[in-house]
Design goal:
The structure holds two protein chains of two kinds. Chain A is elongated. The longest helix of chain A is centred in the C-terminal third of the chain and has 19 residues. Among the domains of chain A are: 130 residues, Sandwich (Immunoglobulin-like); 114 residues, Golgi alpha-mannosidase II (Immunoglobulin-like). Chain A is α/β, with parallel strands linked by helices. In chain A, the strands form nine sheets. Chain A has an eight-stranded parallel β-barrel with strand order 14-15-20-21-22-23-24-25. In chain A, strands 1, 2, 3, 4, 7 and 8 form a six-stranded antiparallel β-sheet that branches. Chain B is of the alpha/beta class. Chain B has a single domain, classed as STAS domain (Transcription Regulator spoIIAA, 2-Layer Sandwich), CATH 3.30.750.24. Helices cover 38% and strands 34% of the residues of chain B. Chain B has a five-stranded mixed β-sheet. The relative contact order of chain B is 0.17. The chains are: A alpha/beta, B alpha/beta. The interface between A and B is medium-sized, with 27 and 22 residues.
Chain lengths: 705, 110
């Protein structure tokens, strides 16, 4: 029998129509046509605008018949469309009242907030035609990708090692060795999977990949005249569409396939994919920004507005998305569900997540509905939720972000404490002990485990690791803001000279400090995150805010893999060492006691004397031992591990705690030695079993077996 | 150049030769050939592409359809694809789902 619900009932010009289905929102391919559905709380009429791909002028405009509106949703099926070459938008009419927050303007063509593919910036860096009335052009995507047996990996969070990367920066440099047509794309990340495996990471965190406009606020440097772009992409144009310019096939509109194929291959190699998502603001900017989508669809609903009608600016980027409005909450949920179910994404890191906990007037909520909704959603149930637990409006929630048993946090306190301990500051030994244990001071009392803490020393925002040990201050002149941008609180130490130097002792110290940082990060409980390129000693010449540079300042130079091969091997060793030792990756906090009858506490603290850590203000030394019989709460058996850290300016003798009679200490890492690491399983015995001499600013890791 | 597709069934092998430009306009014709080939229950589906000059997203969609229509037990061969087509298959990862070859006869005996 022939279905009758797929036959047209109305017409407009040459187009045959039928009342659509309100759900799902967006444009959906159905038998014989396309179902368009869009909502607005305040619009009075809505017109569908159809384009042939790349054409500046529309081919048709179809006013939604009044009977096609249910509640605040307009939905319509248009039959016989050439959906492969279709771009579509909307015009909305409604009140204009600045103080009330209404910005309706039927002259503007608006992008569907649910657009799954967005054209208009198909190839990265090609200057757009600004005269085009419709800049970011919604298109249809297809759900026919063959995932085979794939699904999100669900690696236990405490077993993760995250690598934060910029898709373009990872392979755009000519030295990357990938095909020229792949450089800077998802396809090229796929080409580099063997490298990621060799390094030892099992999750990559991609800086924003939702469609953004690299030309948003593009400008020329006032002195050098260099074109500065929105390179990092923390400014979303469309929440459901992958950035076309990050796909080698973006110009053919196949970015969906290319990204899915990357995810599938990463999964096949045991690597998860975490997306850095920006829900705190959009690319529409402040009162002077463009109409892209929300502003013309329902400004009052989507943005936090002052009583006078201006945009609140908790994001530092011009506007603030009204995340705890029920409408906005739903689109955020729809978005994340889409990425998990359609792209098999393993987790999300929420940029300036504290904004997501503010009410529509900006006040922090005790029980933010959005954060709670995400935490309890069945589709998101197994994916990682990671908060950048602060915002640009002064809310700082590291340790207190509303967690619902689900949310992890970028641990900014870990970053600052470990940096201070690393450079030899006094009074940091106690704080360092917390860092090494997964920050129980922040999380244990709330019943949150060590994996709540995303441990990092460096991230895209701030110095690279090589710069952290080479610069005392930021050097941001290249950003064209007279060095006024970027953080001034870097807790960095240049080791004796600012920037590049020929002094061999300074360079040797820097090399040790880089290794010390990596070693500390990899023996800390919690989830370590490594910044792209730190394994190769990548420098940004002291620039700690490279958001606007599409050049070698941000592109990873793969020749470093040759010049800094030793460092790469060291870092890779530390990552694999962590993966080899479950005692470094506990799900629950230490209890500081022996609860399995091994004769040793799960963790014990030491100093230059065994069993006597020096907690005094002047102390710059710390050592600890982990009992392998307590690994994963005693459910598995691991080796004993001892880590000594001498951040003092002189060589010191560290007395090492005695092992059970049949075991011996072996040397895995000693950053103070010319042989800074030894392969897992074949580590040499420690020369004197009762102790070792540690040079200034060095870290040693011993294995007892 | 306009699109053409012809199907040959040799026992358990179905060979579809496609030529010209595979885009939204020509995709339905290609799809029809695939359905016809699938009806013969082949073990191998060979897509001969030496004359295929261009493939749009719609073309990729039909290839994905072909692979899924045939099922996991049928090997799909993409033979003699030109550079542009091959590049597209690689970047989108479809090359992982099929067997890419210069010639079918040597690929199948290898």
């Amino acid at each position: 029998m022939e279905r009758i619900d797929i036959h047209p009932t109305h017409s407009s010009g040459n187009y045959r129509l039928r009342c659509g289905r309100p759900l799902p929102f967006g444009a959906t391919l159905i038998a014989g046509g396309v179902n368009f559905s869009i909502y607005s709380s305040h619009a009075t009429s809505c017109t569908l605008v159809l384009f042939k791909r790349h054409q500046p002028e529309p081919v048709a405009e179809i006013l939604f018949p009044e009977e096609f509106r249910i509640g605040n949703v307009w939905s319509m099926i248009v039959f016989d469309l050439d959906y492969e070459n279709l771009e579509y938008g909307y015009r909305m009419d409604g009140p204009v009242d600045f103080q009330q927050g209404h910005w309706f303007n039927p002259q503007k063509i608006l992008m569907d907030p649910y657009a799954k593919i967005i054209g208009g910036r198909d190839v990265w860096g090609i200057e757009p035609d600004w005269s085009n009335a419709y800049q970011h052009r919604a298109r249809l995507a297809f759900d026919d990708f063959d995932w085979g047996n794939d699904r999100p990996l669900e690696i236990p969070p405490e077993d993760q090692i995250i690598y934060e990367m910029h898709v373009r920066g990872f392979t755009q440099h000519p030295s990357s060795g990938v095909k020229e047509t792949h450089r800077g794309t998802f396809a090229a990340v796929r080409d580099k999977i063997p490298y990621l495996k060799q390094l030892g990471v099992n999750a990559i965190e991609l800086m924003p990949i939702f469609e953004f406009d690299e030309f948003e606020n593009s400008r020329c440097h006032p002195e050098t005249n260099e074109l500065l772009l929105n390179y990092w992409g923390y400014s979303t144009v469309g929440f459901f569409a992958p950035k076309a310019g990050y796909a080698a096939t973006g110009k053919y509109g196949m970015q969906v396939d290319e990204l899915k194929s990357l995810v599938k291959d990463l999964h096949k190699n045991g690597i998860e994919v975490i997306l850095d998502v920006v829900f705190n603001h959009t690319a529409e900017g402040n009162e002077n920004g463009p109409y892209i989508s929300f502003r013309g669809i329902d400004n009052k609903t989507y943005y936090m507005l002052t009583p006078e009608g201006y945009y609140f600016n908790f994001s530092g980027c011009g506007n603030t998305l009204n995340c705890n409005h029920p409408i906005v909450r739903n689109i955020v949920l729809d978005c994340l569900r889409y990425w998990v179910s359609e792209y098999h994404i393993d987790g999300f890191r929420f940029d300036l997540a504290s904004i997501l906990g503010r009410d529509p007037w900006g006040a922090p909520l005790a029980n933010p509905p959005l954060l709670e909704t995400l935490a309890f959603d069945p589709i998101l149930a197994k994916c990682k939720l990671i908060a950048e637990a602060w915002d640009a409006g002064g809310l700082y929630q590291v340790g207190s972000f509303p967690a619902y048993g689900r949310w992890a946090e970028w641990n900014g306190k870990y970053r600052d404490d470990i940096r201070q301990f690393l450079k030899g500051d006094a009074g940091k030994v106690g704080a360092m002990a917390q860092c090494l244990q997964g920050s129980p001071d922040l999380y244990a009392s709330a019943g949150r485990g060590p994996a709540t803490s995303i441990n990092f020393i460096t991230a895209h925002d701030g110095f690279t690791l090589a710069d952290l040990v080479s610069y005392n201050g930021k050097h941001n002149a290249a950003n064209g803001e007279y060095n006024s941008d970027g953080s001034n609180d870097n807790e960095s130490w240049n080791c004796g000279a600012e920037g590049w130097t020929e002094d061999p002792s300074i360079n040797a110290l820097r090399q040790r400090q880089i290794r010390n940082a990596i070693a500390m990060l990899m023996v800390s409980q919690g989830v370590p995150m490594l910044l792209m390129g730190d394994e190769l000693g990548r420098s940004q010449h002291g620039n700690n805010n490279t958001y606007c540079h599409d050049n070698e300042l941000n592109w990873l130079d793969w020749d470093l893999l040759k010049t800094n091969q030793d460092l790469f091997h060291f870092v890779s060793h530390c990552l694999h060492f962590r993966q080899a030792h479950p005692v470094l990756r506990n799900r629950y906090h230490f209890q500081n006691r022996d609860y399995v009858g091994s004769g040793y506490a799960d963790i014990s603290w030491h100093g230059t004397q065994a069993w006597q850590a020096d907690w005094s203000e002047a102390s710059r030394t710390l050592a600890f031992m982990l009992c392998g019989k307590h690994a994963k709460q005693g459910s598995v058996t691991d080796n004993y591990i001892y880590v000594a850290m001498n951040m003092y300016w002189d060589t010191q003798w560290f007395e090492v705690p005695a092992l059970p009679a049949s075991l011996k200490w072996h040397v895995s890492v000693n950053t103070g030695s010319p042989f800074d690491h030894f392969a897992i399983g074949v580590e040499p015995e420690l020369e004197h079993q009762h102790g070792l001499l540690m040079r200034d600013h060095s870290v040693a890791i011993l294995v007892g077996r | 150049m306009s699109f053409s597709a012809t199907t040959q069934i040799n026992g358990k092998t179905a060979i579809i030769s496609i030529a010209g430009e595979l885009d939204a306009a020509s995709a339905p014709a290609f799809r029809q050939e695939i359905e016809q080939a699938a009806a013969a229950n082949p073990e191998h589906l060979v897509l001969e592409m030496s004359e295929l000059e261009y493939m749009a997203s719609a073309g990729l969609r039909v290839l994905i359809f072909a692979k899924q229509k045939m099922g996991v037990n049928v090997d799909v061969y993409v033979v003699a694809a030109q550079e542009m087509v091959l590049e597209t298959l690689e970047k989108t990862g479809f090359d992982q789902s099929v067997i890419i070859a210069d010639r079918y006869d040597t690929a199948v005996t290898a």
